[in-house]
Amino acid sequence: MRPRIVTLCAAALVLGTTTGTIPAQATSASTTPLLGTTTATTTGTTGTTGTSLKFTQTNLVSDVKGQAPIHDPALINPWGIAIGKTVWVSDAGSDLSTVYSGAAGALKKEQTEVWIPGGRPTGQVFNPTDEFVVKGKAGSGPASFITVSPSGAVTGWNAEADPKSAIIAAFTRGADYKGLALMETNRGPFLLAADFANGRIHVFDGEFDRVNFGRRAFRDPALPDNYHPFNVEVVGRFVYVAYALRDPETGKSVAGQGKGFVSRFSASGRFLGRLAARGPLNAPWAMTAAPKNFGGLTGAFLVGNFGDGSIHAYNPRNGRHLGALRHPDGRPITISGLWDLQVGTAENGGTNALWFSGGTDGGKHGLLGIITAGGTASQGTPTTNPTHNPNQHNSNNSNNNSGYSY
């Protein structure tokens, strides 16, 4: 399948809300100040503003018996999380998407298991629009969930088209897709896929056609050599790209403190500045806005490191480092093989909870759970994590009432 590439003048492209409208507070890129790259060192269990950084990690699902209340043999190297009516998880180690619903103490695994023909699914998004139609033997319809794979495949799942398998909707030879975001704009929805192999963000329209925004779109002009897009997310009114150092020999990310950048872009791909550079970044992948009632960090920009499993909070207005999330006893939260962070919903986890996924033991196993402020979590497995080895390898980004402006 060879992708059709369409050239689009994206100058007037503006991010909208989940309903496709443009936020009243939206400003043009030219009037938005660049985010700084200042970092601040924190000690103890409070951030630079004196805010408590104590949180509770609750393990909910694992393929390893005894590590979480729910045992799911298919949860191997869980990567992207997408939340609609249920929680969908890309299991790169089993070529599946597994589905869960509920919260701590009431979580259950759904019967639905979807095979991903592109193999090793990484990024995944929930699609609330009528676009991105997939066709199968049983019928057709908008893909409810869309995934990408390191093979260069973009796959979509619709229950009417095929209840047991996703369908390859686009394929880019030579691409290594590590992350995926859905961008809803005043000109319709687009998919953004992070191509780690070639250092590009590929854009797809609602018909799964590749769209050319221009050669400078979604490019940080001052990146050091071999730093490539590891993930892409839409948070508030902007697009954020996490960059990791890529080993040109193996094609894998390189772990190490200070090895990472997070940059901000407009919907049309214009570079707006760096949110974070080096400092505590260590092969960063996860990016989201902290949920409501998330301690003193409500609305902060959270970055999860794949390299060391730590989670760091930043002020989204100026890029100031607010500190790392910690357990109630002061130990830093480190999740082996940390991949995604997604804010929960009232039905799934709670609106004040942060879902996490991790490919433990170098991606041989998996862990899914939630993080909540203070000691608010309940009925889960204690937060002891497997030892992390850095050398192994939805529209839920809400910041309502956060005090921060995205």
From TrEMBL:
<protein>
    <submittedName>
        <fullName>Uncharacterized protein (TIGR03118 family)</fullName>
    </submittedName>
</protein>
<feature type="region of interest" description="Disordered">
    <location>
        <begin position="373"/>
        <end position="406"/>
    </location>
</feature>
<feature type="signal peptide">
    <location>
        <begin position="1"/>
        <end position="26"/>
    </location>
</feature>
<feature type="compositionally biased region" description="Low complexity">
    <location>
        <begin position="381"/>
        <end position="406"/>
    </location>
</feature>
<keyword id="KW-0732">Signal</keyword>
<dbReference type="InterPro" id="IPR017549">
    <property type="entry name" value="APMV_L690"/>
</dbReference>
